[in-house]
Amino acid sequence: MASGPKRGVGGFSEWKCAICGEPVIEGQRFVLIPGKGYAHIECLAAKASSEGRLSGDALAYYLASEALSYAIVRLKEAERVASSDEAASRIESVRHRVEDLAGELEALLAGAVGES
Question: Measured between alpha carbons, how far is 2 from 59 in angstroms, rounded to an integer?
């Protein structure tokens, strides 16, 4: 099961990939596999592909999740460079909603490749 994050380089949260065992660092594209922990999204896709479980639906969830992961990283950067607390707070609120959507897609992806 996923344990709490430790603080890694630059103060970013860090976990171990449930598939490859290497660090998963906040800002990288990752997915939460229910009951197993965090994994690099690329590791999940590669594992599913090598096992013949990367269906059209799984690929669609992967691509959509990839887009939201990129948006989250950019929103975090926008929060850091905002010149007012109000702007940072509004961007943070949007980021939280995008993170919720990303979580939904990640759960669908994990289910589509049989990792849920």
Answer: 24
* Residues shown for the chain: 116
pLDDT of residue 34: 77
> pTM for the complete prediction?
0.71
Q: Which residues in the chain show pLDDT less than 70?
A: 1-13, 116
Question: What is the rounded CA–CA span in Å between residue 6 and residue 26?
Answer: 10
